[in-house]
Design goal:
229 residues; mainly alpha; 11 helices
């Protein structure tokens, strides 16, 4: 499976230039196409040349501010999330860290983060027609698949490491005892959390959440080694 565009360099430049135009047009007017804008920004994060970073940063400044100002979940929330994750994929983690810190002010936003991630990894088995499922109660899925997915991506070099840490923390808060369902996954989580605390490559908030995760796992009796760091 390819990890990014395989077009020749000149075609890549044309593609991402057109993607910029699409993102701008989808966000314009009285009735912007938020879903199309979000998808365009997501793809822009894969730009290997880094030329999309400038307009993504400009879009981030506007959209993240609007999403945070609402103080709860709104259709702007997943759009802003897509922009900041794309910037992290382009090598700038600070907008994502700011989004994690400021755009999860209530339970609706925390539920949205988990429902969105569970849907992404296929743990929510039925198709969703729109974004309204995001802030809904966490029902119909346990979280084992999502936890495995996140644990595999707890690496300081991963562009979304701070988001993955926050989602693990939120998931274990919402699903008490989840790490005990699959002890090997729980032990691997303990190892990787400890390694990240030693690495110094994550945000201050992530360090607090990792400390909470490690304490919770040890309180549940998880020790020793899992499947490796």
């Amino acid at each position: 499976m390819a990890f990014g565009p395989l077009l020749p360099a000149d075609q890549q430049r044309v593609f991402f230039r057109h993607l910029h135009v699409l993102a701008e047009r989808s966000a314009a007017g009285r009735q912007p196409n938020v879903l199309l804008h979000r998808q365009a920004c997501f793809l822009a994060g894969m730009d290997p040349t880094g030329t999309c970073a400038a307009w993504l940063a400009h879009s981030c400044a506007r959209r993240a501010h609007r999403a945070i100002a609402v103080r709860t979940w709104s259709p702007l929330w997943p759009d802003a999330r897509s922009v900041v994750t794309s910037l992290a994929n382009q090598g700038n983690p600070e907008p994502l860290r700011d989004f994690i810190a400021r755009a999860h002010p209530d339970d609706a936003c925390e539920r949205a983060a988990l429902n969105y991630s569970a849907y992404w990894v296929g743990e929510i088995p039925y198709r969703q027609r729109d974004d309204s499922f995001m802030p809904a109660p966490l029902s119909g899925w346990r979280g084992s698949r999502l936890l495995r997915h996140l644990v595999q991506r707890l690496d300081a070099s991963h562009p979304f490491v701070d988001l993955n840490i926050h989602n693990v923390w939120a998931l274990l808060t919402a699903r008490r005892g989840l790490a005990l369902d699959e002890p090997d996954t729980g032990r691997t989580l303990l190892e990787r959390s400890t390694a990240l605390l030693d690495s110094g490559g994550v945000s201050a908030q992530s360090r607090r959440e990792l400390t909470s995760i490690v304490y919770s796992l040890r309180a549940d009796g998880l020790t020793g080694t899992g499947t490796g760091r």
